Structures are given as structure tokens and as C-alpha cells.
Amino acid sequence: MNSPEMRRAPHIGTLPAGPRGTIADVHGVTVGHCTLDEGAVQTGVTVIRPHDGDPFLDKVPAAASVINGFGKSIGLVQVEELGTLETPIALTNTFSVAAAAQAQIRAAVRANPQIGREWPTVNPLVFECNDGYLNDIQALAVTARHFDDAYAAAGPDVAGGSVGAGRGMSCFDLKGGIGNASRVVSAAGRSYTVGALVLANFGRLPMLTIDGMPLGRALAERADNAEAAALLSATPATQPEQGSIIMIVATDAPLDARQLRRLSLRAAAGLARTGSVYGHGSGDIALAFSTAYTVPHGADFVTLPPLVADERLDPLFRACADSVEQAILDALWRAASVTGRAGRRRLSLHDSVPDLAQLLKPTP
Fold first, then answer.
1. Where are the beta strands (DSSP E) in 172-252?
2. Of the residues 65, 96, 170, 244, which is catalytic?
3. How many CB atoms are closer than 10 A to CB 207?
4. Per the domain annotation, does 64 fall within a domain?
5. Among 14, 261, 283, 359, which one is most buried in terms of CB atoms within 10 A?
6. How far apart (Å, rounded) are the C-alpha atoms in residues 47 and 30?
7. Annotated catalytic, 284?
8. Which among 65, 162, 282, 352 is annotated as catalytic?
9. How is residue 20 annotated by DSSP?
């Protein structure tokens, strides 16, 4: 069987995907990972670059929606106020937010020494999920070097599963992590791409739904060996949903920050389709940005392209929901099993149920 990274999950919905099936199908977007896989340390950093230039000098429009706010992200207040990104987006574990933010600041200052002196300060943007089940999160293993390595590794070929920030993440009591998807739609008579990247670390197995099919209980029942059965039943079914998911949505459609906030909110529809109820202890945050234009730093005036009218946004909303649902499935589909802190183990979806493809075939 091919490695998890080479597998393709079943296609969700009827909208076509882009050529890569990742967030990098949105022109200019690149992603890099730095993975820490050292015994009890199972964590990492993922960096998303909105374009190949300097995001402080050429900011991109953006907005976020907090579906459930049990999270420790940094930088959202200024994004909400100003509606732009001015650093790459960093993903990591909860206790490494400060390290990633400081690395972002240092990188911006290296590129632009006027920041914080002649110019305003920079707004680092870091999102997190708690990978403490598998990772020794108290080790504070992530450093500025790991952010720099992930940034340097950014490219259009996006790895998924148990990599980067997703290394120690769990999803529906299985191995979670980084997932990607894209959809191509026509809006206002033009073709646009919507891409999603998720850091999936949420859910309980009985909730798991794939393409409308409530498969969580069936997956648990079909675990093919004693290890799988024991691991999948280790957490009582009555325990509430916990964990988090970060959903990053990119598009090449010309939208302003208000419209991007509306787009980001539709990520919740894709999340709900997988079975999530946005539990009390879950940090569910979506951020959307557009690559259709940039906002120059220090400009007196900003010229916007013609924006897609609100009445023509529905295809983009649908593409966002489908992309997020697909990206969550992609994270499960591509993840490899991981053993981490204190011998704890999360089995991948495929290691739990090797005949998964057969199970997902529609009943005649």
C-alpha cells in the first residue's frame, strides 16, 4: 500500500478540485513545515506564505471568525481592526505561540529594520492547537530556528498528515494533523479558486462523519486488531469533545475584509459536516485571505480591483465549506500513526481500519 502521504481521500461534493488539491492551488500561496520527531517531543511548525514577497510591505486583505474561542492565538485583534495580514501565518502547539511570534517579529525586523522605530510595529499572527496528548508540550521544544526552517521550506508542494504543526495532533480519537483541499468555482462569470489548510485536533470517534455517512461507530467496530480496538476505546464515549481546529482559507477572488469575514464563517459549515459540535473545550478559528490584490505599506491611497458583489458570493461560500470538509478528511487520510509522550499512541485512520476504502463504497 502507498504511504499515507501519497493516498488521496474520497472527493467530497461535486465541485472540482484544483490541480494539486491543496491551498497552494491559490496562485502565490506556499506552505512549509518543520517537524520535530524526537521521542516524547512530537510537534512542529507550519508556515503559510500568502505570496512570495514581503507581507509587511505588501499586505493582503484578511478576516477571521471565532467559532468557539477556547484558544490562545496571537494577532487576531489587529486583523479584525485593520483587515490585513502583514506576516506569514504560523501554526504550532499551544505553548509555542510566543516562540513563533517572536520569530515572526525578528524575521520582519531583519527584512525591514525601520519596524518599531521609524515605522509602526509588526503584528505577528500565530494559531495553535494543544498537542499535549502525544507531545511533551512542557518541553517548549519549538524555537525561532524551527519557524525559520518552516519558512525557508515553503513551496507549492504541500505535505499533509503528521507533519509540521500537525505532528502531535489528534482528530476523532485518531491521528490528525495537517489537511489540504481546494475547489474551483465560477462566481460573477469568472473562475476562482478557494483553498483550505486545516490543523485538525478535535472530535470524538462516535461523531465522525465522512461525506454524510456516520462512520465513527462503524470504524471502531471494524478495528482489525487488538491494539486498534484498545486505543479507539480508551477514551469513554461520554467524554465531551475537546481539542481545536484552525482553518485557513485562501482565495484568488477579489474580496474585501468584510467579505472575507463572511467567507471565513462558512468554514464552520464544513467543520460541522464532519461531526463537530464545537465543544466547550474546543478552539475553532477560521481565517480567510485573498491574493487578488495587496495593500502597500504606508500608502496614502489604496486602489481596489472590482470586487465580487455580495449577491455573487454563494459559489465561494460553497467552495469554502467543501474545501474545509475535504481538508479535515485529508488530514485523517494522510496521517501516519505516531507514538509519543509516555508511550501514548494515536493510530492513523488506515492503521485502524485497513479496508476503509471498501467500507466507504456506497451501498448498491
1. 174-175, 177-187, 190-202, 209-210, 213-214, 242-251
2. 244
3. 19
4. yes
5. 283
6. 8
7. yes
8. 282
9. S
For residue 78, being part of any structural domain is answered with yes
Give the span between the Cα atoms of 361 and 364, in whole angstroms: 9
Kind plus residue range of the DSSP H or E element containing 69: strand 58-69
Residue 362, pLDDT above cutoff 70 = no
Coil/strand/helix, residue 334:
helix
Annotation marks residue 314 as catalytic: no
Range(s) of the domain holding residue 235: 11-298+308-350
- Over range 335-362, report the average pLDDT: 84
CB contact set of 159 (below 8 Å; sequence gap of 6+): 5, 33, 178
Domain count, the chain: 1
- Asked if pLDDT for residue 129 goes beyond 60, the answer is yes
Interatomic CA distance for residues 135 and 344, integer angstroms: 9
Taking the C-alpha atoms of residue 167 and residue 163, their distance in angstroms, rounded to an integer, is 5
CATH number, domain containing residue 323: 3.60.70.12
Which residues pair with residue 53 across a beta bridge? none
- The pLDDT-based confidence of 8 (bands split at 50, 70, 90) is confident
What pTM did the predictor assign? 0.94
Tell me which residue has cell 459549515.
269
Distance CA 3, CA 192 (A): 31
Query: What is the rounded distance in angstroms from the CA atom of residue 79 to the CA atom of residue 60?
Result: 11
Question: Is 337 one of the annotated active-site residues of the chain?
Answer: no
177 secondary structure, DSSP code:
E
